[in-house]
Amino acid sequence: MTSKTKLLFCTTGVVLRRLGSGDKLAGVTHVVVDEVCPGHPLRLSGSNSFYEVHERSMDSDFLLLELKDLLRKTKHLKVVLMSATINQETFVKYFGGAPLISITGRTFPVEDM
Questions:
Q1: pTM of the entire predicted model
Q2: What CA–CA distance (Å, rounded) separates 9 from 51?
Q3: What is the CATH number of the domain that holds 40?
Q4: For the chain, how many structural domains are there in total?
Q5: To pair with 40 at 20 to 30 A between CA atoms, which of 32, 61, 81, 105?
């Protein structure tokens, strides 16, 4: 990571380590949590940040706890959760009535062979 970094990909563990060391993600404007899944990349940056979230794990649940706490303490950070299968109401309530944007997707027939 350098001063020229605009987008940073990290694992859940790396972000948890940053947060655990007292890093308040200064300089990070957005954390996008997409299909939370253990081992998926987390993208953090000085101007944008993305985190992959799909299948729940202890680390991903802990990350959401840490992000919720961080959101209460800082105003510079935006967290975006994305998932095709997420229970929207649960996360809207968890994050204190966070705005919800639904985008209709398409499904395609799949044939087992």
A1: 0.70
A2: 8
A3: 3.40.50.300
A4: 1
A5: 105
